[in-house]
Amino acid sequence: MFKTLRARIILLTMIAITIVIVAISTAVNITNSLWLVQREDNMLRLISDFNGRMPENTSELEKRAQFAINEETPFQTRYFVIYTAHDGVITDTFTSQIASIEEEDIERLNNLTKKLPDDSFKTIENYRCLVRENKNGRMVTFLDRSQDNETIARLNTASILISAIGIAFVFLILLFVSKRILQPFVLNQEKQKQFITDAGHELKTPLAIIRTNAEVLEMCGGSNEWLDSIKNQTDRMDGLIKGLLQLSKSGELTGEAEHILFPLSAAVNEIAMPFHTLAEQKGHKMHFDIKPGIEYKGNAQAISTLVSILCDNAIKYASEGGEICVSLYKMGKSTLKTAKLVVENDTDIDDKEDPNRFFERFYRSESSRSRQTGGYGIGLSVAQTIIENHKGKITVSKTGSRIVFTVIL
Predict the structure, then answer these.
(1) Is the pLDDT of residue 153 over 80?
(2) Of 313, 300, 320, 332, nearest to 382 (Cα)?
(3) What pLDDT band is residue 246 in, cutting at 50, 70 and 90?
(4) What's the Rg (C-alpha) of the chain?
(5) Residue 378: count of CB within 10 angstroms of its CB
């Protein structure tokens, strides 16, 4: 149980931390990209305002561009300008500020910008461009953004690498810390189980003595209501102690035990068939529909206990003369696919009662039939623990006068 809990803590924590780290990294990268685009647009506006030339007055540049500019900025900025007539024919170009542009590139880029509206920005290949109208036609300013693209790529790579390293470190820390965090709970459960076991064994002796004394008094003085009450209550206490011991040992029937492949059909047959005689003695009809050849990989002892609990429960709570049916069949073509075990019986449980509460520890139905059985509400809780530790599912439903327990293995 604690291994599963530890795994869930690590998984959920890692999911939360991964989401946070990815969100922060994504936000930083998006913010950086938007800032670079804004910087490029401001530079394009500045160049276009001066008719496609970078002004030499750096103080005026910095004031209008809204970012830091120095004497080297005009030489570091790579851009070119295409001047066209209103019909899109190129009339002039300015390419002194860039070396990696050819005439065929200019023609191609001009064709790509012909349909762009005035005062519009557009990213084309490795360029950011701004279209402006002037007295002779149009002016399209292209700003080379190769360095900005490289900056974005480097930041993305660095953020991915750092995030992955951070997540890995967090996982290692959680792997170490989670065990220490759960250690007090593990020790507490072990002490609790040990206390129940020790107390159960200690209580058995005085109960046996009380019952023996009551039987001796009955032999000497005859039976009376007080002696009958003493014997009934000692029987109840003995049953409750046995239930508590079974509950404390249910942790031993867990998925932590070695799982082996065993014949499930044969195991269910072996455990369920002996209940047929008990059912007949109590006036019930018991039917079996167990498909042969089904195998299952799990704890054979735990599964046998599960079948026994469900069959015993069906006989205890079946209505007078009711029918009980135990079914087993596979879900899938392979013998190793999911198996379904169904145990159902006629019942007189009130329709208003929630069947799902049957799995709660020490819960008992309020019906008169339930009170007559002398159960303690422990068996189904143990059954649910066994199924959970096998990563299966157990459900209960009431259809008409029948209650159905379905186990998916």
Answers:
(1) yes
(2) 313
(3) low
(4) 40
(5) 22
Q: How many residues in total does the chain contain? A: 409
Place of tokens 């379904």: 340
Render 358-395 in DSSP notation, one character per residue.
GGSTT----SHHHHHHT--S-HHHHHHHHHHHTT-EEE
Report which secondary-structure segment, H or E, holds 397. strand 393-399
Range of weakest confidence among 152-156, 257-261, 341-345, 350-354: 350-354
d(CA 370, CA 98): 92
- The dihedral through the CA atoms of 40, 45, 48, 50 has a sign that is negative
Q: What are the pLDDT digits (tens) for 284-336?
A: 999 999 999 898 988 888 888 889 889 988 888 888 888 999 999 888 665 45
Neighbours of 406 (CB within 10 A): 15
Q: How confident is the model at residue 382 (pLDDT cuts 50, 70, 90)?
A: confident
From residue 24, how far is each of 13, 14, 20, 99, 154 by CA, in Å?
Answer: 16, 15, 6, 38, 17
DSSP 62: H
158: Cα separation from own chain's centroid? 30
CB 74 within 8 A of CB 50: no
d(CA 200, CA 212): 18
Helix/strand number for the chain, H first, E second: 11, 12
pTM of structure: 0.55
Question: Tokens 């295409």 appear where?
Answer: 82
Question: DSSP letters along 266-282, please?
Answer: HHHHHHHTTHHHHHHHT
Residues 6+ apart with CB under 8 A from 184: none
- For residue 104, which amino acid is it? E
Whole-number Å distance between alpha carbons of 407 and 342: 6
Quick one: which of 278, 404, 249 has its CA closest to 342? 404
How far apart are the C-alpha atoms of 297 and 314, rounded to whole Å?
26
Of 366, 265, 369, nearest to 314 by C-alpha is 369
Where do the DSSP E strands lie in 276-377? Answer: 285-290, 295-298, 323-331, 338-346
Q: Copy the structure tokens of residue 28.
A: 């930083």
| Percent of the chain surpassing pLDDT 70 | 82
Contact 264, 295 (CB under 8 A): yes
d(CA 407, CA 344): 11
Phi, psi of 117 (to 5 degrees): -70, 160
